[in-house]
Design brief:
The protein is of the alpha/beta class. The protein has 25 helices and 17 strands.
C-alpha cells in the first residue's frame, strides 16, 4: 500500500510538472507569436520614410546584381524604385516569363545571381515554365514575388494564392518574409542556396506590407475611428501590435554581404585515379556539358585545360564554343560512332538522359568517368544501360583543370584525334553539299544558315529558340568562343529567345546577339521587340519561316496521316517587328542573290541601335529526318 501511494504521488508530481511546463511554454510562446518580445528587443522608427524595398536593393547590390528584370505590379513597386535609386538597372519586359529568362541568361553569362521580380498571383504563375527551365538548366535565379498583406492572406485578398506550395518543387529554397527585419537574412540565405552545390532557382515572397513605409501600412491597418467596446479595443490592440512587429528593428544595421557558397570538388584520390586511366587510354573522348561553364572556375581556364589534354571533345549545351570556332580537338559530327570506338569516355557535366539515349550509346567495354555536381544526374540510368568506372560528385570545370595539371606533358594519341577529325570534315562537307540543293518554291534553310555562319562577327552570341530550324543551326553555326551560345537546356523550352537575348545584350553590349528562331517559337516573344527598342538593346532575329511546326509534323504526318495543329502561315513577321519599333527584312527566293548584302544590312541596322528581324521564307528538307521530338 505504501508503494502504491508513493507511485501515485510520483505520478501526480510528474503530471503537475507537465502541466506547469505547458503553461509556461504557452506563456512564452504567445508573447513570441504576438511579437511582444520584439517590442522589448527592437525599436520602431514610426516617422521614418524608409521602406522594405530599400533593404532588398541593398542586398542585391552587395551581391553584385546589375540588372533586375520585371513586369511591374503594385505589390513590388518599392523594390523597383529602390533598385533604380541605387544604380541597379530595372528592365521591364512584356511577359513575366521573359523577365525570368533574361535573369537566367545574365546568371549564365556573368556568374552572378540572376534576378527577376514579379507581382503576386498571375504575375508569379506566368513564371512557372521559366523557373522550371532554370531548374533543369541548373541556373542560379532569384525570383522575387509580391504577395497579399500578411493579415489578409487566406482571406480572399486580390491575387492571393498559396504561392510557396506552387514553387516548392521547382526551387531549391522557398521563403516568405514576415517582417521588414527578416528581409536581409532571408535574401542572403536564398542567394547562397541558389549558387551552392548544383545551382538552381530560389523563390522569396514579399507580402506588400513589408515593402511599403510605416505611415502607408499604418493607414491601411489601423482603423480611422477609435473602436468601442472590449472586442473593438482588443482588435485595435492586436492590429497596433502587428504593425509594431512588422517594423520592429527594421532599420538596424545588418550585414548584407554574400554568405559563403559551397561547391563540391573532386578529391585528390579521384583525380589521381582518373589520371591513371587517361594515361593508359588509346581512344579517349570528353563529352562536355553546361556544368563545365559554372563558377568558380573561369571558362578560359577550362578551355586551356582541354587544349592541354588534347583529348577529342564533343561539346553540348552552354559548353558549345568552349574551344572556339575551329579547334583541332573539337569534334562536331558522328558522336555515336566515336563513342562506340572509344576506350575511355569522360562525362564532364554531361548526363545520360535522352540526349545520350539514356546511356545506350556507351559501350560496356569502355571505361567511363562521370563528373557531376548532382548525385542523381551523376548516376542517371546507370542501373540500366551503363555503369561508371569512376563516379565523381564534384565540379566538372575544376576537375578538368586538376586533371590537366596532373597530366602535364600528356597529349592524347594523335592518330585517334586525326581519325575523328577526318570523319568530322567528311560529314561537314556532305552537309555543305546539301545546302546547295535547290528547293522548288522557298529557300534552302541550310544555305541561309551557312551564309550567316560565314558572316558572323567574332564576338557574336547565338541564342537558339525553336525546333527544326534551330536543330539544323546547331550543326552549322559555330560559336567563336566560350559562353557565346545560349539554348534552353534539357527542358527544351520554347519561348526563351527574347529573354535570353535581352540578358545577353545587357551583359555583352559590344557583342552582336543573334536569336535563331523557328516561326512557331517566335510567337512566344516577338512582343519583346518593344523591349529591345525601349531599353536600347538591339539584337538580330533570324526567323526560319516554313509556315509550320515542322519538328512535329515530320513524324505526325507519316505516322498518323494528318498535319492537324501543325500548320501555320507564311506570316509577315518582319512587319510585326517594325510595328514594335524595330527594323524588318524579308528574305525569299526573289532576293536570294542578294542574301549576303541583306544579312550585312541587318548587321548594320543592329550596329546603329535598331533591333532587327530577318523573316526567311524556307522550304522543307530531309536534313533532320529521324530526329526526336518527344
Amino acid at each position: 500500500m505504501e508503494l502504491e501511494a508513493e507511485g501515485a504521488a510520483c505520478a501526480g508530481c510528474a503530471l503537475a510538472w507537465s502541466l506547469t511546463a505547458v503553461v509556461v511554454g504557452a506563456a512564452l510562446l504567445v508573447p513570441w507569436r504576438l511579437g511582444l518580445v520584439h517590442r522589448l528587443r527592437y525599436r520602431v522608427e514610426s516617422s521614418s520614410p524608409r521602406h522594405g524595398g530599400e533593404r532588398v536593393a541593398e542586398v542585391l547590390k552587395a551581391h553584385g546584381v546589375k540588372y533586375l528584370f520585371t513586369l511591374v505590379g503594385g505589390h513590388i513597386s518599392p523594390i523597383l524604385v529602390a533598385c533604380e535609386k541605387i544604380g541597379i538597372r530595372v528592365v521591364d519586359t512584356r511577359h513575366e516569363a521573359t523577365a525570368v529568362f533574361a535573369a537566367d541568361s545574365v546568371a549564365r553569362l556573368s556568374g552572378c545571381i540572376g534576378v527577376a521580380a514579379v507581382t503576386a498571383g498571375p504575375g508569379l504563375t506566368n513564371t512557372v515554365t521559366a523557373i522550371k527551365n532554370a531548374q533543369m538548366a541548373e541556373t542560379p535565379v532569384l525570383l522575387i514575388g509580391g504577395a497579399a498583406a500578411t493579415l489578409l492572406q487566406g482571406r480572399g485578398a486580390l491575387q492571393d494564392i498559396d504561392q510557396l506550395s506552387l514553387f516548392k518543387t521547382l526551387c531549391k529554397f522557398c521563403g516568405t518574409v514576415r517582417t521588414v527585419r527578416d528581409i536581409v537574412p532571408v535574401l542572403r540565405k536564398a542567394i547562397a542556396v541558389a549558387q551552392s552545390g548544383t545551382p538552381g532557382p530560389v523563390f522569396v515572397e514579399f507580402p506588400i506590407d513589408v515593402l511599403y513605409p510605416y505611415h502607408v501600412v499604418q493607414r491601411e491597418i489601423i482603423p480611422k475611428r477609435a473602436p468601442k467596446g472590449l472586442m473593438g479595443k482588443s482588435v485595435s490592440w492586436y492590429l497596433q501590435n502587428h504593425l509594431h512587429n512588422l517594423f520592429a528593428g527594421a532599420w538596424d544595421a545588418r550585414d548584407v554581404s554574400p554568405l559563403p557558397v559551397d561547391v563540391p570538388m573532386a578529391t585528390a584520390v579521384e583525380v589521381q585515379s582518373c589520371i591513371e586511366m587517361v594515361s593508359r587510354a588509346k581512344k579517349p573522348v570528353i563529352l562536355l556539358g553546361s556544368q563545365a561553364t559554372l563558377p568558380p572556375t573561369p571558362v578560359k581556364k577550362v578551355q586551356s585545360a582541354l587544349e592541354s589534354l588534347a583529348i577529342p571533345c564533343f561539346l553540348g549545351g552552354m559548353a558549345r564554343g568552349m574551344l572556339g570556332r575551329d579547334s583541332p580537338i573539337h569534334i562536331r559530327q558522328n558522336r555515336r560512332d566515336a563513342l562506340k570506338k572509344a576506350d575511355l569516355v569522360i562525362l564532364a557535366g554531361t548526363v545520360c538522359d535522352f540526349r545520350l539515349s539514356y546511356g545506350r550509346v556507351l559501350t560496356r567495354s569502355s571505361k567511363i568517368i562521370a563528373v557531376n555536381r548532382d548525385h542523381s544526374q551523376l548516376l542517371k540510368n546507370s542501373d540500366i544501360f551503363w555503369k561508371p568506372t569512376l563516379a565523381v560528385k564534384g565540379d566538372a570545370g575544376s576537375f578538368l583543370v586538376m586533371l590537366a595539371e596532373g597530366l602535364k606533358g600528356y597529349q592524347a594519341p594523335s592518330d585517334w584525334t586525326q581519325y575523328l577529325k577526318e570523319e568530322d570534315v567528311k560529314k561537314e562537307k556532305a552537309n555543305g553539299e546539301k545546302s546547295e540543293e535547290k528547293l522548288e518554291k522557298y529557300l534552302n534553310p541550310l544555305k541561309v544558315l551557312h551564309r550567316v555562319e560565314h558572316l558572323l562577327e567574332e564576338d557574336s552570341i547565338i541564342v537558339t529558340d525553336g525546333g527544326d530550324f534551330v536543330g539544323s543551326a546547331a550543326y552549322i553555326l559555330k560559336p567563336r568562343g566560350p559562353l557565346r551560345w545560349l539554348d534552353p537546356g534539357a527542358f527544351g523550352t520554347l519561348g526563351v529567345g527574347g529573354g535570353f537575348a535581352l540578358g545577353a545584350k545587357l551583359c555583352r553590349p559590344e557583342s552582336q546577339v543573334w536569336i535563331i528562331y523557328g516561326d512557331g517559337s517566335l510567337g512566344y516573344s516577338i512582343a519583346e521587340f518593344d523591349t529591345f527598342k525601349r531599353h536600347k538593346t538591339p539584337v538580330i532575329a533570324l526567323v526560319g519561316n516554313d509556315a509550320g511546326w515542322s519538328q512535329i509534323s515530320r513524324e505526325q504526318v507519316p505516322l498518323l496521316g494528318s498535319s492537324v495543329a501543325c500548320d501555320l502561315a507564311y506570316t509577315d513577321y518582319h512587319t510585326v517587328a517594325q510595328g514594335y519599333g524595330g527594323t524588318g527584312f524579308l528574305l525569299n527566293q526573289e532576293n536570294e542573290e542578294g542574301m549576303d548584302d541583306l544579312i550585312k544590312a541587318a548587321q548594320e541596322e543592329c550596329r546603329n541601335g535598331n533591333p532587327t528581324l530577318i523573316n526567311v521564307l524556307i522550304g522543307k528538307t530531309n536534313f533532320r529526318e529521324g530526329s526526336i521530338s518527344v
